[in-house]
Amino acid sequence: MQTVFITGGTGYIGSRLIPILLNRGHHVRALTRSGSKHKLPQGCEAVIGDPLDSDSFAQQIRPSDTFVQLVGVPKPSPAKGAQFRAVDLPAIRAAVPAAVEAGIAHFVYVSVAHPAPSMKAYIEVRSEGEELIRKSGLNATVLRPWYVLGPGHRWPYALLPAYAILERIPKTRETALRLGLVTLEQMLNALAASIETPAESLRILEVPNIRKA
Predict the structure, then answer these.
(1) Cα–Cα distance between 11 and 178 in angstroms, integer?
(2) Least C-beta-crowded within 10 Å: which of 35, 47, 163, 172?
(3) To 10 degrees, what angle do helices 14-23 and 184-196 make?
């Protein structure tokens, strides 16, 4: 059993990951603003604070073993560059030093597949997050999905036949796999597996690794 500290616990992935971890016997503590406490799954301990302000939660991370960083602008798109810099970037800048200060044994971060022909601002922000983790010296797992298929995120299913073809062509195989689609179930399984098998130093999980978890 681990004690897991999660930011973004009421979001698309976090709200689904927490019950999985609880069912597996882990103690889950989720950072949330006071007005969102009721949105957390039953059995999850609420930690009141602002994910963009480390002073509001840094002293409340202990005694957690694992820090899972899931804060981010919902439904990322190229039009949301300013939001990525206003939310995603301050969140990871707050989380990493707070995790170091708390002596976190393993840090888990959802980044994004790159390089890619689109989503430049999003990739820049997430890449900066990866660099902060790398420089911190934390043992960490970085997951790099491109697009997660699930409720409310289904339109790319129409692209699956094209992906199947591109993954078989030598010239396009690497790109098609790196920028492939993963299901919500695969993403949740990969996150749970990452939490339960902590990395030593820095571990990067690309789309093929996420699919196999």
Answers:
(1) 25
(2) 35
(3) 50
The CA dihedral of 16, 21, 23, 25, to the nearest 10 degrees, is -170
The confidence band for 57, taking pLDDT boundaries of 50, 70 and 90, is: very high
CA 198 – CA 202 distance, rounded (Å): 10
State how far the Cα of 99 lies from the Cα of 105, in Å rounded to an integer.
9
130-160 pLDDT tens trace:
999 999 999 999 999 999 999 987 777 788 8
- pLDDT tens digit sequence for 34-56: 899 999 999 999 999 999 999 99
CA–CA dist 211, 149 (Å, integer): 12
Q: Where are the beta strands (DSSP E) in 15-124?
A: 27-32, 45-48, 66-69, 106-110
SS3 for 7? Answer: strand
**43-69 as b/e: b if 16+ CB within 10 A:** ebebbebbbbebebbbeebeebbbbbb
Predicted confidence at residue 96, as pLDDT, reads: 98
Number of other CB atoms surrounding residue 190 within 10 Å: 23
Cα gap 58→55, rounded to integer Å? 6
| Amino acid 90: pLDDT | 98
